[in-house]
Amino acid sequence: MAGKLSFSLVSPEREIFAGLVDQVDAPGVEGDFGVLADHAPFMTALREGVVTVIDGGSRRQFEVHGGFADVTPAGLTILAEQASEVAAA
Amino acid sequence: MASLKEMRNRIGSVKSTQKITKALNMVAAAKLKRAQEQAESARPYARKMAAVIANLAAGVSGDGAPKLLAGTGSDQKHLIVVATGDKGLAGGFNTNVIRAARERIKSLIDAGKDVRVIAVGRKVRDGLSRLYGDRIVQTFEMSGHKTIGLPAAEPIAALIAEEFEAGNADVVTLFYSRFQSVISQVPTPKQLIPAVVDGDAPPIDLNGAVYEYEPSEEEILETLLPRNITTQILAALYENQASFFGAQMGAMDNATRNAGDLINSLTLQYNRKRQAQITTELIEIIAGAEAL
């Protein structure tokens, strides 16, 4: 398996998540997508939905309202208008 | 010369003023901590946003670039957004920002430009209305918002966008007070439109790969740029808030110290006077006894 993906989720008020993870699934305006390490550069607007962060066996979910995802060789950044963690079920 | 009773009253009133300034100082210190944290936690978003925009801007330079980024091609109409606090009692905080804005407005008017002003905070309106009252488009007050957040920044950004769309503004500049430290707040102008591509933002190295956009580059930019304005305003409001409490803390600390000095010198005067009075009374009594 390739290296880890550096992921950060930030809202205007604060940085909600930052760290190295295996995979992030996010709701793009033109369909959900998953990002692994070394993804091709890519940028999309997000619709309302849930961002899932998968690292090893653990999953964390964040609700986001609008925003952008930016994938660069350096990692994935999600700029969310509003975001909050969904309590683990 | 004031009587002893008057002096006692005076000392009492300075003492109670000192209590108030001391309390305000402590309140400001407590609030400063929160405001500072808020300002700092808002920075990653603004920084990332700047990096993304810098990246996008590099890709769409030329005719296709949105006007929010490239400008209207003219710089005749200026819109100045001045952000200060609603309250005073914060030393030079409000006046410094207003003075910086006023200098800019004056030089623009002297250069024959059209200038209009959006006032954020009641103190701006008070400070600018005498000279440029007819140029104020609208005043926003922050006191309606319990905490500063997106709901406070959005209406301001919306008005700016509206003015820009309507062709009433070519260049939009925001004046606010950047929080450098508790003792130093710097009035800072920041150009919102055309968007300034931040030189500090690290360029993103794509290793020759091509960015893919979903939806198109233009559509993303078109939603991102207005949001960037909101973000910049929000960041400025946070900085302002922290600056305000920093300045207030400093001002109140000074006021408390001055009140202390005043109390000391008044007390000294009071005691001297009391002594003098006692001495005079004694002399009178002794002189009276001798006369018998």
Quick summary:
Chain A: Produces ATP from ADP in the presence of a proton gradient across the membrane. The complex is a heterodimer of chains A (89) and B (292). By secondary structure, chain A is mainly β.
Features:
heterodimer; A: 89 residues; mainly beta; ATP Synthase, domain 1; eight-stranded mixed sheet; 0% helix; globular; B: 292 residues; alpha/beta; Pyruvate Kinase, Chain: A, domain 1; five-stranded mixed sheet; 7 helices; 6 strands; elongated
Fold and architecture overview:
The complex is a heterodimer of chains A (89) and B (292). Chain A has 89 residues and is mostly beta strands. In chain A, 0% of the residues lie in helices and 71% in strands. Chain A has one domain: ATP Synthase, domain 1 (Sandwich), CATH 2.60.15. Chain A is built from no helices and eight strands. Chain B is an alpha/beta fold. Helices cover 61% and strands 15% of the residues of chain B. A five-stranded mixed β-sheet of chain B has the order 3-2-1-4-5, with helices on both faces. In chain B, strand 1, helix 4 and strand 2 form a beta-alpha-beta unit. Chains A and B meet through strand 5, strand 7 and strand 8 of A and helix 2, strand 6 and helix 7 of B.
Query: What shape does the CA trace of chain A take?
Result: globular
Order of helices and strands of chain A: EEEEEEEE
Quickly name the level 1 CATH class of chain B.
Answer: Alpha Beta
Share of helix of chain A, binned = under 10%
Global morphology of chain B: elongated
- For the record, the count of structural domains of chain B works out to 1
For the biggest sheet of chain A, the summary is:
8 strands, mixed
**Quick one: which chains have the greatest interface?**
A-B, 25 and 32 residues
Strand order within the widest sheet of chain B?
A: 3-2-1-4-5
Count of folded domains of chain A: 1
CATH level-4 homologous superfamily of chain B: ATP synthase, F1 complex, gamma subunit
CATH topology of chain B: Pyruvate Kinase, Chain: A, domain 1
The topology string of helices and strands of chain B comes to HHHEHEHEHEEEH
Please give the CATH architecture of chain B: 3-Layer(aba) Sandwich
| β-sheet strand percentage of chain B | 5-15%
Q: Report the span from N to C terminus of chain B.
A: 33 Å
Give the integer mean of the pLDDT values of chain B.
84
